[in-house]
Amino acid sequence: MTYIPNSIEARDVASLVHMQTNLRTHQQEGPHVIVRGEGCRVFDDSGRDYIDAVAGLWCASLGFGSERLAKVAYEQMRNLGYYHLYRHRSNEPAIALAETLLELAPVPMARVVFQCSGSEANDTAIKLAWYYWNAVGKPQRTKIIARRMAYHGSTCAAVSLSGKPDMHAGFGLPFAPFKHTEFPHYYRRHESGETQEEFSARMAEALETLIQAEGADTIAAFFAEPVMGAGGAILPPRGYFEKIQAVLRKYDILFVADEVICGFARTGEMWGCQTFGIRPDMVTSAKALSAAMQPISAVLVSERIHAAMLAQSDKFGNFAHGYTYAGHPGGGRGRARGAEDLCGDRHRRSRQAPRRRAAGGARPAQGASAGRRRARGRPHPRHGAHARRRRAHSLRRRAQRRRASRSRGQAPRAAATRGGRPFGVRSAAGDRSRRDRRRQRAT
Fold it and tell me: Is residue 393 scored above 90 in pLDDT?
């Protein structure tokens, strides 16, 4: 294909390498350039709009543009545009976000380690698993087990952890310490007449067989996504994680939950761990952590891991790990505010309910369904941040339709009326008649 010189397509082909793209084909076909976003829609350079149902790369959970978050980030950057977390330095936005993550954690966690991507988060979790076993005097435990067709990132260690052969081809990967157990895709891989529970038991047996073959005293950790993302959006079969965790406890193997895709309410609960009953030693998160507004990731570590990290500092001094932009204040404030937007009343209620109960407050009598929602910290469907976003989106769409009709020279749609006045607007006479009827009933 021939491009207009200096067009955006020509400039792209001449300068960029595109990920997960056939590079030869791209030289001929060129890019599809997106110039702006609004809600769940993106607009290309020709003005055409698309509904991006995948939220970019499963990450734009608050849409493709947020004036509110932009203002928060702008104000923070005016105040402190950058600082790091090295050598005892800190900044308030990073601290606030870490506190929020510890409050939201699916199981009790001790500390937060920040990075800039999901790949880096899983890389860090791998290093921390090795760091832990060195600290407790078992340095031979270096092997990491993941699952075939799992995806955990693109860095050398994270892609070795991934079980996708297409991402290893031509790179000389995976590295030797990384092993892979069965792909738990019940629909494609169950045997004739095999129930989901029986399939899960077979998957757990396969994991135990691999552990025994490699030597249980050489295995450091097991990584799993609650729902396998790039492997095909595969839900775990019934009983799967219960049986897998029993095997891991039997051989004292660390469990790392990769919540990079599933975290922040994508599975209905705040974390996939809560949806599927997982109790991990570490949790990695990214993507919806910032609703893709800023590059960030976090590893949540349990007290068991943190105690080993402290012991290693006693031995070596510095915790010799880090990233230049980890805990960046310019995005930290917006990330914390974005988490508030995403969680809405659910997060605030879940934080406040234990405090009310600790102070002796009792819940009022309520229906069973409402009680379950409140006990889990969920707002009523008509209330909370989700409802506010729906109302705001509806108002924006109405405004867009009005602007479009004016640009086509059409008159705006008239408001629906009842008796000469818009629906929902009461007349004074109507109010009086209603009051009269109420008085009559009372007498």
Answer: no
